[in-house]
Structures are given as C-alpha cells and as structure tokens.
Amino acid sequence: MRLARSDGRFPARLKAIFDPPRALYLRGTAEPELLDRRGVGVVGARSCSPYGAQVARMLGRELAAAGLLVVSGLARGVDGEAHRGALEAGRPTVGVLGCGIDRDYPAVNASLSRRMEDGGLVVSEYEPGVEPAPWRFPARNRIIAGLCEAVVVVEARERSGALITADFALEEGREVFAVPGEITSSLSVGSNALLKLGATPLTAVGDVLDALGIERMLPASADPGVSEAAQRVLALVRDGPSAADEVTARASLDAGAVSVALTELELAGLVAAVDGVFRALR
Amino acid sequence: MVLGRTVTHTLVGLEARKVEVEAHLQNGVPGLAIVGLADRACQEAKHRVRSGIASAELEWPSRRITVNLAPAGLRKEGSGFDLPIALAILAASRQFPVDRLASHAAIGELSLDGRVRPVAGVLAAAEGARRAGLGRLLCAAESAAEAALAGVEPIPVRHLVEVVGYLRGEYEPEAVEVFSPGEAPPVELPDLADVRGQERARRALELAAAGGHNLLLAGPPGIGKSMLARRLPGILPPLTREEALEVTRIHSVAGLLSRDRPLVDRRPFRAPHHSASVAAIVGGGAGPKPGEATLAHRGVLFLDELPEFQRPVLEALRQPLEDGVIAVARVEGRAVFPSRFQLVASMNMCPCGGRGDAGTECQCSPQRLASFREKLSRALLDRFDVVVALPRPRAAELGGVAGEPSEAVAQRVAAARARLETGTPSRTDAATALLDRAVERLPLSGRGRARVARVARTIAALAAADEVEEEHLAEALAYRSPRELAQ
Q1: A203 touches B at CB < 8 Å
Q2: What's the pTM?
Q3: Cys bridge to B397: A208, A266, B369, B393, which one at CB 3.0-4.6 A?
Q4: Domains of chain B, each with CATH number or no CATH
C-alpha cells in the first residue's frame, strides 16, 4: 500500500525530519500505526563477526521483548540478525528497503522478509520496479534514522553505511549508541570512532531502555532451573567465549558431561555457539 | 584333432566369469589371430606369448593358429590371458599330456623371457575356479598366497618352463603356506595416544566408531582434523573372516594387495584427494573398476576439505551412503560394487580458514561464504550424524597430557557395538520431551531429529545404560549440525 506524506497515518517522527519522503510504500500484515511505536534502529556491518551477529540478535530480541519496535535495513549481517532476534521474541519488526517495494534485496533474506511481513512491515520510499543502486542506500538510512528514537551501531568499518545512519540520527537529535568493539579489529574502527565522538557506549540492553525511560522488565532472577554442572559451565562461559575443550579443561568434567551442560544452557537460551565457540547471552 | 583348451576367468566388476580359451591349429599361412572381444592388452598377448614360448625353448607351431576366448560375446580385459593362451597353444601342439590340464584353471601375464607375472584380481578368479569345480589354479608365485584364500590349491609357477615341467610331471612346485593374520607382524596403526587435548573431538570419534556414524569435523587448518580421522580405523572392531575376504577381493581387483599380507584384515582407510573425479570415487571405466568408495568398503572413507570436492562427486556419494552399494551401468554391462563405508569429512569453517581461529580475522566476503556453504547441500549434510566444530585451541592446551590409547577406546567401542546389536534401547519420557523441546527451539529438521535420536542410542550404549535418558539425548544434541551450517 502507498502512504502519502499528507496521509494522517504517515509516521509523525519521519515527517519531522529534514527531508521526509513524499510517500512510503508498505508491505506486510501490520497496520501503518505500527510505525508510530517507539522504534530503535539496530544497524551495522554486512560482513559482521560472529560476535557482532550475536550482539545484534540479542539486541533485537531483548529490545523487542521490552516493547520497542526494532527497525533495520534487511541487509545481510547485523541488520538481518537484529530482525531475526525480534522475530525470536515474537514481536513485529520493520525493515526499510533501498529499492522498489516489490524487490527482495538481498535475495538471501527473501525468506526472512516473508516472516517479517507476517505481523510486521517492510517499507520503502521507492515505487515497485526500482532497481537497488548504491546511492539509494544512504537515502534508505535516513528513513531508518527517521523512524527511530534511537540508533544502535553494532559493528561498523571505517566507511560504513551504518555511520551514515548514525549521522542522520544525530542531525535529527535522536539518541545514538555504539557497541564497543576490539580495538584491533577493522570491523570496529567505525563504531569505536563514534564512541570517541561522543556516542553512548552500549554495554547492556538496559542502557537503551534507561535512555528512553523504559522500565526494565527483564527477569532479575538467577538462571532458571539448570543443573549444578550447567551452572558451573555457565560461570566459565561468562568469563569469556570458550570452546568446549577449554570448558572441559577448566570445569573438571569430562567431554560428554560438558556437552550435556552446554546443550542444556543452549536450550535455556543462556549460551549460543558460533563456529564451535560458546558465548554467554546475558 | 589339433585343438587345445584351458580355462581362465575374467572380471566383470568384482565378479569372475569363466572364460574358455581354445587354440586351433590349421594349415595355411603361419600366424596367430585372437578372437572373442579381446581388448588391447589382450590382443597384445600375441607378442608376449610368442616371445615367451620361444624364450622357454618350446616349439612355436608354424601353422595358422586361431585363439578363441569363449563366450565370444563377453568383453575380455587385461593381461591375465597370456598364460592360458600359451597353454592352449602348447596343448594344441601336444607339447605336454593334455589330460593333465583338466581340473586346472590358469591366470597370469607372461614377460618376453617367459617369466610368469602376477595380475590383479587373482582372488576373485580363484573363487571362480572353485565355483566351476576346478581344484587347482596355475598362477604366478607372487599370487599363490592370495589364491589359497579362496580354498583352491594354487600351483605357484615362476616361468613357463616350470608350468610345462609341472604338466609333464617333471617338476613339483613348492607348497604354498596359507596366510594366517595372527602370525604376520601386526600392522602399526596410528594411535589416539598421540592426540593431546581435543576432548570433544575424541569423544565424537568414539561415538562415530561405536554407532557407525558418519562424522564431520569442522575447524581452522592445522588443528589435527586429519590426524583424528586417521585414528578411526584403530578403534573400530577388527574385520570378521568373511568381511576380510570381501575387502581382499576388492583390493585384489584394484591391484592393491601387498605380497606379505595377502589378506586385508584391517579396516581400510581411503583418503582421496579433492581433485578426484566421479569415476575415481564411485568406480567406472569400460569394464568397470572399483572406485575409492568401494575400496573403503567396511572401512573409512575420509574426504579432507569436503567443500573443495566437485559437486557431482559429493552428489554421487549419496547412493552408496544410503544403500551401501554402487551400481555402475555401462554400455557393455552393469556392475554392482559393495561400498558400505563410514564417511569422515573435514572442512574449514570458511574459504579463507580464518573462522574459528581467535588469532586471525575471516577475510571472506558474505557471497563467498554463502557459496562455500551452498556447496554442502542439505542432502549431503543430512548424512552426517555427528558434526563437531573445533576452534583452534589456545596455546596452553597444547601441552596437555597424552590422551587415552586407542586400545582402551576400542574396548569400549566393541562393548557398545555388542549392546547395540542385542536390541535398540527405548527412550525415557523425559528424553522424548527434551527432544521435542529441542526441535521447537533449535533449527532441527525431521531428519535431524532422527539423527539425534540415533546418536543418543549410541551414547546410551557406551554408557551401558538400559534406556536412552535425558543426559544421553542432551549430549547427542551437542553434535548436531551447527546453526551456521544448517541455514
């Protein structure tokens, strides 16, 4: 559907930016009012590290669970993970395209965008048939920034589209967060530079919620009903991402028992594994 | 009558077919013609046979000689026909008592000086002789021990002179000792004690051995994936006598038997290079020859750098993995090769090898990574019951204590296999509930669910438990395809 700027249902926050689009095209089952919910943009590198992917997913899931609308660009890497996180929490999420509304770009995320349309929205300022082109993505980023009250940059290289989103957000006076990254990794040069310029460092999901004045609803309770061995393994994984063998060496358990504990923690949503390395999720 | 006749065998796939070699002498321009669909190597027998007979100081009949290989419709391959052809010609010209040849089959290549050389596939030929009711096989001395395995009496001969001497009753070849694996020096297999650390991978290897599961090891280069894979045959139970004969027959046809160890009593380990063609892996050729998948029958087929293999090769492996046999169809006929192997594969986590290695950063573009993973089709990944991702261990772990030796692991594996043979353990309700929860929360397909259940049974058997309990299932879940590969 097409939503003209003059339409009463056109999102107010987007209308308030310097150059709002003339119209928005919408795809999905949700009503346009969804776009007026308090939104947070989660953006970052397409070729992100496993760590970046994990943080993006966690942010997507927990921000959505706290009642915020997760907005991102439906790209590979951080964008896609943030959307997936929100879907995991069972909440709607909004993807902004840099091409015609009838396109799926990149094609790998076609199935993701189908899932998002069920309950959420995919939006674009371009009419059907418009090809994706390099100059359309910065324009798309101004819409992401415009729809949100805050933007979180997860991982960004020195010259990254995510930084453009952050610039737009700053110009419009929206909150900008950056996730601190390793100073030796080229994937964090951009996000760390943002921190140097005065962006708020994000070290927990609570940072965003505090800034937006939202009560935390995260359960403060200890780990729900996992075994004693699993508690021990969890404590080790919280010290730093570890391979199963490193846990085995330090937990004085055998390899089989460690596998049992790690599966238990994975199912409880307390750890996640990428490329054989286990990380604590909160 | 000027006709001489011997019996030999040719191979169709792994199967020996009886071939009668007839030589007929008639008046006319002296010469030799071989008829009966003989291939190139077989046609060249003319020259070897003629020189061999001359070198043995026997008489070359100066008549018109026609050699027929019957049945004439069957394609004949190889150089094993030299000896039978020479004998048929010598029989036709009555250079030894012809009735002495009855109840003998013959196989062997001749050299120009009349020596008898060994050929491939003697075991299958000897079995064919036994089935045809022929009790004795004339063959090269090197092949005698191999032929004895089939239960026929081998007559080892080194030279055409010896053959004729034996048929004239002037020469008695020495007796052949039947090979018994117990007396031969044991083959040194690589031992698991050499592997330091790598607890999770060792555990996965043990599970794979106990349950006969296919195993995929993923990790950065140089962390010992191949080293681990090579230690799998050492913890598998030894071959039974029938299995050993089956494997020996295959290796004999491929010409891979060693002289001092004619019986293959250790599980084979085959590691073809990733440049291998489809025919090299599944077998092929005009008269189909067994490929690596068949040479690994009852043993381990190791594909190092799995995604580097050509896509058609990987797809071709699906039939043997499913059915345990490969049917190779050719214009000339069809051969069925047994190929019940255990598949072990290794791969890097990304094309540049940087993933899973804390010290380096992955340089792969998302497109390159996607096409790398794309190559491992769902269907192929579905064949691996046990998948382990091995990140590079930190330096501190390398100094770890030496691991448990293969022998101790092999005992547990044998005990677990015995348990699994007596019946499938049932699953407790709690374990089933856990499995259902996992299917809900993890990316786990229907096939994936069945795989996890299978591995859980093996874990229970290793633990000598009567039922598959929650913890067995939880451990099995840890070896499922990781999310980054499953997507």
Answers
A1: no
A2: 0.78
A3: B393
A4: 3-167 (3.30.230.10), 192-392 (3.40.50.300), 423-487 (1.10.8)
